[in-house]
Amino acid sequence: MSMSGNNTTTLADLTNGLTSDPKTWKNSHLISVTQISTSGLLILFQTAQSMRSLVRTKGGDSRLQHRVLASVFYEASTRTSCSFQAAIMRLGGTFIHVDGGKGGNTSASKKGESLEDTIRCLECYTDVTVLRHPTTGSVQRVALGGGTVKPVINAGDGVGEHPTQALLDAFTIWDELGLSLDVADGDSKNEKTHKGQLIIVMLGDLKHGRTVHSLAKLLARSSIKHELVLRYCAPSSLEMPSHVKEYVEKFPNAKQEEYTDMREAVKGANVLYVTRVQKERFEHVEDYEKVKGAYVVDTSLMKSAPSGMIVMHPLPRVDEIATEVDSDPRACYFRQMENGMFVRMAILALILGTP
């Protein structure tokens, strides 16, 4: 969707709007995974693969020379902010960073300026905004409220969505396992291709984990040529929210199961996606203390897990994956982090019209 200043646009209007046609990506917002059709997912993944080859052979190029990205974060970030900054620089552009959190480098919120006005002002200097904010729905409000004239990318809105994380996660699964998508030219080109069911275990804090909310939605709505089984394994107070499960239920190819026993959950699994218990999301420290360390992935678990099961984590980790697991070839969370830069390079190239 190009920027038109039309304040009647809703997120529902954008459903499946990003397709294999690069014109649909140019100057578009990226707010939710629901915007991306399966053919759009394929062109993004193929572009990310080309970015990986580019970085590994030449380090980057100059296709986004003189383009400026506004990196605006009202919540702490290391991986998302740095990978977006690296992505624009690898493609010849540059960035300005605004730390809108408490004690950050901006005076805007301290002076009472609205989020909408802050972004509108930054657009005067930049070509695209990457925005993280603690309030669920805030990025959507800014992007679709009629005030912005340049693309806005959602880098996480509270416990809502984190679409670029879901996209890099889905790319990692697609790339590592050799998945096929049910669209033209969607069959895997990997030497190793996945057959049969795709069983993904989501483990840990599923209530507050916006990464798993977005990933569950994205996997369910994408036309994967495999029956999808999502297994949710969480402490009793941190289960996957009902609104996510209700969304997944709409798609007949997706099956949902709930577990409390981690060892049972990983039987036959292809992917173990681990999330940390997010201390910053709890109102009371004692509630956090009750559930932290509920699940720990260690070498004992890995010995009993399927030989082809990859282990993912959006990071940072606390104690939910023992460092001894890092040397296991199935541990792909650092490869996942590297993929984050390639996918965000692809997103920026598509949105800024130079894929």
Question: How would you portray this structure in words?
Answer:
The protein is 35% helix and 14% strand. It has 355 residues and is of the alpha/beta class. The strands form two sheets. It has a five-stranded parallel beta sheet. α6 crosses α7 (210-221) and α6 (163-177) crosses α12. The longest helix has 21 residues, at 38-58. It is globular and about 55 Å long.
Task: List the SSEs and their pairings.
Layout: H1 22-25, H2 38-58, E1 68-73, H3 79-90, E2 94-99, H4 115-123, E3 128-133, H5 138-144, E4 152-157, H6 163-177, E5 198-203, H7 210-221, E6 228-233, H8 242-249, E7 254-259, H9 262-265, E8 271-274, H10 285-291, H11 299-304, E9 310-312, H12 333-351
Parallel strand pairs: 1-2, 1-3, 3-4, 5-6, 5-8, 6-7, 8-9
Short description:
The chain is an alpha/beta fold and 355 residues long. It has helices spanning 22-25, 38-58, 79-90, 115-123, 138-144, 163-177, 210-221, 242-249, 262-265, 285-291, 299-304, 333-351; strands at 68-73, 94-99, 128-133, 152-157, 198-203, 228-233, 254-259, 271-274, 310-312.
